[in-house]
Each structure stands twice: as structure tokens, then as C-alpha cells.
Amino acid sequence: MTEFELLRNEINQYLSPQERAKIEAAYAFAEEAHRDQLRYTGEPYITHPLAVAHILAQMRMDPATIMAAILHDVVEDTPVKQSEIVEKFGTEVGDLVDGVTKLTQIHFENYAQAQAENFRKMVMAMASDIRVILVKLCDRLHNMRTLHSLPPEKRRRKALETLEIFAPIANRLGMHAFRVELEDLGFASLYPMRFKVLKDAVGKARGNRLEIVGMINDQIREALKKNNIPSAMLSGRGKHFYSIYKKMLEKHLSFSEIMDVYGFRIIVDKVDTCYRVLGVLHNLYKPITQRFKDYIAIPKVNGYQSLHTTLFGPYGVPIEIQIRTDEMHKMAENGIAAHWLYKSEKKAAYDAQSRAREWLKGVLEMDKTSKNSLEFIENVKTDLFPDEVYVFTPKGQIIELPAGATPVDYAYAIHSDIGSTCVAARLDKRLSPLSTPLTSGQQVEIITATGARPNSAWLNFVVTGKARSKIKHYLKKQQRGESIDLGRRLIEKALHAYGLHLDELSQPILASIVKQLHLESVTHLLEEVGIGNRPAMLVAKQIAKHQNETSKQDSSEIKIPHPLIVKGTEGLVLTYAKCCRPIPGDHIGGLIKIGQGIEVHVVHCPNLERYHHQSDRYVNLLWEENIEGDFSVDLKADLVNRRGSLASLTLAISEAESNIQHIRAQESDRHHFHVDVTISVRNRSHLARIIRKIRKRKDVIRVLRHKPHPEVAV
Questions:
Q1: How is residue 164 annotated by DSSP?
Q2: Which of 647, 714, 713, 654 lies closest to 680 in space, CA to CA?
Q3: Which of 252, 386, 482, 543 has the fewest CB within 10 Å, making it most exposed?
Q4: Does residue 76 carry a catalytic annotation?
């Protein structure tokens, strides 16, 4: 059966003929657009969007979402424009497709920045329509199911992103079934050997446990029957592989310690029965008091509800039991998707949606106060991994916070203004430091003071993304004025060398510089220089160059060196790149590294070449004439493996008036060995003389200057 036939069978069960016709039209359009494209698996590309649509149809999603799933890669991977989607299928479908589509038209410096920007765009779209994330999660789920066809590096990258972002989002939206599958697929791709070993071990352990599981099962059923609770559904509850792996890693537990715990789930008809079952179980086996949690009275932040209890079972084995109603179970498995899947049970589904929207509102606040996409994604990650602590306001309202949260986190959770002006806290009516970690059940009261402001020391102990981003935002705002003043002074000083003054420059020249550097305003430029993101000397050089080009004066009146001269005395911090180790005589260029000055590279070094067209990062450099000093350079040599050959190499280097800074020899085979050596040279002529000396030695097969490899990030 084809992917489209599977989808058609699914939508036939719940959509009207008119709605099905629209979906078929979207399929015809997408199939034509993707006609000549193949996936890594070798299948036609259209199979992927159809599989995503099928998963959504199984969740009983509305026609617009199914259509968006079928069309979700059309704008990104084919010449079709967004406006065409809107014109043919309407604004609703167009907006959903746009929310899922990656930013492909913008050039990013690295993969991390691109992913962060794409994630930010997706969150913005989620905030206006929650269905965007459902399409994205189904897209990711199908990609993970077919990940085996990708190259290893790409596979690991996708798996890590799934474990760090998409599985936690599924968990945050209460979609347990999605989270479990995404985590296990991600784990299998990121650590294939660990996954295989763990899977085999779990298979063996489960086989050995059948007898005791059967005994516990029979005893619980008998106890429930005696107490007139016959409608309860009892089932074993196996841990998924990634959760076992995480527990072993984080809690330093052995595999046998985790597998010695037996898990069961009991599903009943109503809330009253949940508590009756709890009483029956506590009469049957002894409870471990510290291990009881009531998530029915106090639901988790994602809407999850259940009673959790741990008991001493037969032979003293620990038994973990979850007790919940059928409605709670559906919500636990499907989260916000339950709104579409179980339309008769609207209250719980709408509750899950309102919780999701509340979370997204907080995420949007974080976006406003984050400096860039990378900082934003880090703040969101912090929010996605909470072990919950439940505390009470003075009026008895329950506030949920991540484990390790402090009164400052609590204050920001109540309101940003309370967080920014808090000066002390009362925990259970006793004054406590603001850095005190909160524990479940505490009553927290915040004391504020007019005129109080956030303290940079708070960043050492706050754990929530909201608190961290708000504090950083305030500190940046406070420091901005100081940075602008410092930037102005540094540029004035640098311009003095060219006989120019900042106040005398025309607005068009300054506007041109700002545009060239991709900044927002002159104030932004001054701030960038003040905080060390851009060297004042380079900004002054660019200003002087523009002034010279636009001025009617003779060019001799303003002397502008075209490239900077490497002397180390221009007031700039210069470092020599270790990847290519430039020496006098090499053609060189400079890479501006934020907060670190200029890094000098050989001009054709792959770690510099990617920046050649970025005027805000790349600068031309020349060596000073008659430059003196010793410079490091790396050589690679292959030698015959016999006594004295290494000594002969070092003697040749010494005779050529050079010092060895570092040497490492490694046997290639029985007859040869390879040597990596770092030596000091004065310039290229000196290096050439050393290499000639080495090549004359009879034991030397070849000797070369080391060529750099591209780094992941510079």
C-alpha cells in the first residue's frame, strides 16, 4: 500500500468528502513540485511529507494541518513561492507552511547560528498557532525513523538536536508517546553501540522477571477485586531505553539497580477511585513514604496527572505504581494533541492547550530580552529540562519551578517587576537569603523595595530561563551607556592618527560605515567598539578610507595605509593562528575575533578563506619590512626506520640555525616512521633553507610544511 493510500484510508474515517478533496489537491500540487527529488533512502521525496501527514491524520488533525504537512517542504526545497501556497490553498495553510519552513535565504556563519534562528522562527509561529509544532514534531519523528540513510555526521547532529530540543518540547506539551519514541530513536543514532548493549540487556532482564511480575500482577488484581474495584485496568509499565540510560548516567546507578524496580500502571473510571486504589495498595504492600507524589491535586506543568507511589513488594522488591483515570491516561500520552484526538473530552484538552500557551508566552518574553538566537535557545533549553519543585504563595496558589530554583526565580515567575525589585524572602515565614534553593511544600513570600535593581551576583544561582534573561537584559541596558561613552573615546583616539575628529565627520560617511558593518545606528557602532566586539583601529581605518574617497581634498592630505602593517604596536591585540602558523614572507590576512583582537592567518588558510567577503570580520595585512623575531612553523617528515635517523633530522635543523619547540614521532610500519615537528624560523627564506638541509639527509623520504585543516568554528 502506498503512502497516499495509507493517508487516504485514515482521513476517510473522520473527514468529509469536501475536506478530503482539498487534501488530494494539496497532494497533487506537492507531488508535481517534488517530482524529480529523491530522499537519502532513494525513495521519491513526496513519501516523506505524506508520511508526516499520515501521522497527523492518526492524531485526527484538521484538514488545514494535514495539507500543511503535505506542503511543508515545497517552499524550502522547490522553486514554489509562499505566495503560491496562500493563493491556491488559503492563508491558514500558508501560515502553517511558513511556520514550519526553515530560513534558507539568509546566510549564517555556522550551523549552530542557523539552527538557533530556525528554532526562534518556529517558536514565533507556534505562539500564533500551536499546530505548527505538531507538524514539526511529526516531521522530526519521520526523519528520525529514516535516519539510517544519512551520513554518520549528519545523523549524529540530528540525533543530538532531537534529544536536546524536540523530545523535551514534546514532553513540555505533554506528548509522552512522541517523547519516548524521539528519545529512543535519538539515543540509537547518537550512541548505537550503547543502545544495542542496553537493548540486549533489557531483553534478557525482562525474560528473567516474568515469574515475579506475574505474582505481583495476581496479588494486585485479587486485592482490587476484594475491594470492589473490578473495572480497573492493570498493566506492566516498562521503562524506555533512553530513560534507563539517563538514570544510569545521572544517578550513578548500575543496570541491575534500575531493572530491580517493577513498574505497573492502573487505569480506573474516575478520580475518587484513584484514591481508593491507592488505599488498597498501601494496605497490600508497605509504602515508601518519601516516594509518594500526588500529580492529580497538583498537575505537572505540562498537564500530566497521576498518583505515583513506590511500595515494598514480595521479597522486598520495589514496585512503582501509577494510578490515573482513562482521561488522564489519554492526556498523558497525547498532551495537546488530545484536543483533536478526543473531541468529547474538551476540558482536559483545552487545559493542556492553555498550559502550552502560557509556556509559549514566557518563551516570547525570553526572546525579547535575549541578545541573539544562540542566547535565546540556551534560555529555552534551561526551561525544557525541569525536575519540578512545588511551592505556595502567601494566598495558597501553587507555583511550579525547576529543581534548584531560588526565591529570585520564584519572584520572576510571579511577575518581572517583583523579580527586579526583590530584596529578601521569607520561606515558611522565616527570613532567608535570596540564594536559598526552594523545596516542595514551602510557602514563599517576596519582600520588594522601591528603587531596588537586579544584581549581577544573582546570575550565579538563578536557574529559570526567564529570570536569567531578565537579569541579563537589565545589566546590558545599564552597561550600554558606559559602553557607548568608552567606544566614542576609543574611536576618537584612533581617528587622531588620521587627523580626523568624530564630531566633524559627515552623516553620510557614518551612515555608510554603519551599513557596511551591518549595524543599526552610529550608537550601535560605538557600543560595539566599547564592549570590545570591534577594534577601534579598524573602524577608524574604514572611516578614514571613506573620508578619503568622498573628500575633494588631495589624497595626500589624508594618508591611509591600505592594509595594516603587522608590527604589534598599533594598539591592536595580534595573535598568530596555530592552524597555519604564518611567517614573514607568507601572504597574510587577519580575522577579527570578538573580544580577542586580530588573529593572523596565511591568506589561503581554509579557516580564513570563508571570511574573505565579510568586511566586518576580515582585514588585509602586510608584514613590516625587515621584521625581526622567531616564528613557529610546523613540519611533517617521513623517515626510514633505522638507528640514528631521528638524530640526523634534529641535527639538520640545528645546523640550519633553528630550534625545535616540539617533536612527536610515530611508527608508520616496520620500515618507516612519521615525525611532526614544530621549529622556530625567521622568515620563508630561512624555512626554505631548513627544508633543503633536511631533504639532503639520506634517511629522509619527504618533508613538507604542514597545511591547515578547516576547523568547525573560528
A1: I
A2: 654
A3: 252
A4: yes
Alpha-carbon gap, residue 61 to 341, rounded angstroms: 7
Beta bridge partners of 32: none
Active-site pick, 76, 378, 445, 638? 76
**Residue at grid coordinates 527529488:** 37
Amino acid identity at 507: Q
User: Residue 615: what are its φ and ψ, rounded to 5°?
Assistant: -65, -20
What is the residue whose three cell numbers read 595605509? 561
Tens digits of per-residue pLDDT, 640-672? Answer: 988 888 888 999 998 888 999 889 888 877 788
Q: What angle do CA 86, 87, 89 make, to 5 degrees?
A: 65
Task: Check residue 228 and report its DSSP letter.
Answer: T
Q: For residue 144, give every residue at least 6 positions away whose Cβ sits within 8 Å of its Cβ, in sequence order, or none.
A: 158, 159, 162, 181, 182, 185, 186, 189
Higher-pLDDT residue of 429, 532: 429
In a 3-state reduction of DSSP, which class is residue 144? helix
Residue of 113, 111, 119, 46 lying closest to 77 (CA atoms): 46
CA distance 521 to 518: 9
Q: What is the tens place of the pLDDT at every residue in 508-527?
A: 888 888 887 778 888 888 87
74 and 34 in contact (C-beta within 8 Å)? yes
Taking CB atoms within 8 Å and a gap of at least 24, the contacts of 392-401 are 392/441, 392/442, 392/443, 392/444, 393/443, 393/444, 393/445, 394/443, 394/445, 398/298, 399/444, 400/298, 400/300, 400/301, 401/438, 401/464
Q: How confident is the model at residue 297 (pLDDT cuts 50, 70, 90)?
A: confident
445 CB contacts (<8 Å, ≥6 apart)?
A: 393, 394, 425, 426, 429
Q: What's the CA gap between 175 and 337, in Å, rounded?
A: 7
Helix (H) or strand (E) segment spanning residue 672 = strand 672-681
Residue type, 59: M
Alpha-carbon span 416 to 655, nearest angstrom: 70
**Percent helix, strand and coil across the chain, each rounded to 5?**
55, 15, 30
CB 397, CB 443: distance < 8 Å: no
- List the grid coordinates of 214: 506475574
DSSP helix/strand/coil, 227: coil
Grid cell digits, residue 77: 526545497
Question: Can you list the alpha helix ranges (DSSP code H) found in 582-671?
Answer: 606-609, 645-655
- Taking Cα atoms as reference points, which of 30, 22, 25, 23 lies closest to residue 6? 23
Amino acid identity at 111 = Y
Are 517 and 543 in contact by the 8 Å Cβ rule? The answer is no
Name the residue among 11, 3, 140 with its Cα closest to residue 66: 11
Rounded CA-CA distance 654/382 in Å is 56
Read off the amino acid at residue 508.
P
Torsion sign over Cα 637, 642, 644, 648 = negative
Q: Decide if 84 is catalytic.
A: no
Q: Do 40 and 62 form a contact (C-beta atoms < 8 A)?
A: no
* Catalytic, out of 77, 92, 326, 609: 77
| Residues whose CB falls within 8 Å of the CB of residue 54, separated by 6 or more in sequence, listed in order | 3, 6, 7, 10
C-alpha to C-alpha distance for 264 and 212, rounded to whole angstroms: 13
pLDDT given at position 560: 40
**Lowest-confidence range among 27-36, 387-396, 432-441, 530-539?**
530-539
* pTM of the full structure: 0.57
CA distance 102 to 72: 10
Count of residues making up the chain: 714
How far from 226 is each of 277, 284, 301, 593, CA to CA, in Å? 11, 11, 36, 74
Which grid coordinates belong to 310?
513506590
Residue 129: count other Cβ atoms within 10 Å of its Cβ.
17
Q: Residue 313 phi/psi, 5° resolution?
A: -90, -165
Q: What is the pLDDT of residue 112?
A: 65
Task: Kindly state the cell numbers that stand for 378.
Answer: 540556551
Query: Distance between alpha carbon 306 and the CA centroid of its chain, in Å?
Result: 31
Strand-pair partners of 703: 637
